[in-house]
Write a structure and sequence with these properties.
Strand content: 15-25%
Largest sheet: 8 strands, parallel
CATH topology of the largest domain: TIM Barrel
Number of strands: 15
């Protein structure tokens, strides 16, 4: 059927880490991550947002641990979090230690930025004892001054060198449970940087276009950047960064995976763009289906077509489909015609077939 006819992407072979039960790398499914946008010390709001993100399909959620109040709140947040929580820490090794002690599933921290070797050793030792991976996150907007001086401006080689400097520090202390990201707000730069690190290492990679912007522009940038790499078999977990509700980040991330047949579930709606041949109110039908099926975890492809040219072929090749025209919809399931219904019955007929699928 539709989700079976696409060529399977050959994934890059990477080592695997365990983030609170969610595997990243190796043969694990590509996970979708996001980050809370609440103040972490506001425990009630942060828990509510994490639960909402889990319901939207997030596999992992990151929280900012940027002060002692946030570090203290993490322990309480973890009691109610239905999915693994990652602590986002910058510069402060004490906050990293407190997050690890609280029981987070992963820490996002760059070892080279937390001070002396004793501090680095302390954090890596604590993470290793708890079996907690570390994500080394390099961004083009915050490269070290010596690397910028060497390359003149952010380049793929500069991002790679920065990431590997942090990796070398980890390896010096016999720590190898690492995930790497080399993000940029430039789509071309992030693609080049990830290609470079994918070619030269076997570390699992966390993909993202950083600071992608508002929903429309950010979705396009993320789809191109993340999607290009995933189509090449590069990437083990993804995070879409939007200046918007984090639920939208999760939704966009899941759609990117579904578009490449890499998603682990959910409804994939195929719908025609419409033209002068349209004879039903397809916009209303598709909008209603999208809203009513947003919660469905089953992996189903639904085709909703509004004319007789491409309609029958697309509808019959999907798991469930409808080819509509002149106020009538022909409902298909697994390539076979099930029944004909009136236009005002199409939505309910499709919902019933999904329910029984």
């Amino acid at each position: 059927m539709a989700h079976e006819i696409h060529e399977i992407v050959r994934r890059r072979k990477s080592r695997q880490v365990n983030v609170g039960g969610v595997k990243i790398g190796g043969d694990a499914s590509i996970s979708v991550q996001t980050m809370t946008k609440t103040k972490t010390e506001d425990v009630e709001k942060t828990i509510a947002q994490i639960q909402m993100l889990a319901e939207a399909g997030a596999d992992i959620v990151r929280v900012a641990v940027n002060n002692k109040e946030a570090a203290k709140a993490v322990k309480e947040i973890l009691k109610y979090a239905p999915i693994p929580i990652v602590a986002d820490v910058h510069f402060n090794h004490i906050l990293a230690l407190q997050a690890i002690d609280a029981g987070v599933a992963k820490v996002r921290i760059n070892p080279g930025n937390i001070g002396s070797k004793d501090r680095i050793k302390e954090v890596l030792k604590a993470a290793k004892e708890k079996g907690i991976p570390i994500r080394i996150g390099v961004n083009s907007g915050s490269l070290e001054s010596d690397i910028l001086e060497k390359y003149g401006y952010p380049t793929a080689e500069a991002l790679y060198e920065s990431a590997m400097n942090h990796v070398k520090i980890c390896e010096e202390f016999d720590f190898g449970d690492i995930v790497i990201s080399v993000k940029s707000s430039s789509v071309r730069l992030m693609i080049d940087a990830y290609r470079l690190i994918a070619e030269r290492t076997d570390f699992p990679l966390h993909l993202g276009v950083t600071e992608a912007g508002p929903a429309r522009a950010g979705t396009i940038k993320s789809a191109i950047g993340i999607g290009t790499l995933l189509a090449e078999g590069i990437g083990d977990t993804i995070r879409v960064s939007l200046t918007d509700d984090p639920v939208k980040e999760v939704q966009v991330g899941k759609e990117i995976l579904k578009s490449l047949n890499l998603g682990s579930g959910g409804v994939n709606i195929i719908a025609c763009p419409t033209c002068g041949r349209l004879e039903v109110d397809l916009f209303s039908i598709v909008k209603a289906l999208e809203e009513k099926l947003a919660h469905v975890k089953k992996q189903i492809t639904i085709a909703v077509l509004g004319c007789v040219v491409n309609g029958p072929g697309e509808a019959s090749s999907a798991d469930i489909g409808v080819a509509a025209g002149k106020g009538v919809g022909v409902i298909y399931k697994k390539g076979k015609v099930l029944k004909r219904v009136k236009e005002n019955e199409i939505i309910q007929a499709l919902l019933e077939e999904v329910e029984n699928y």
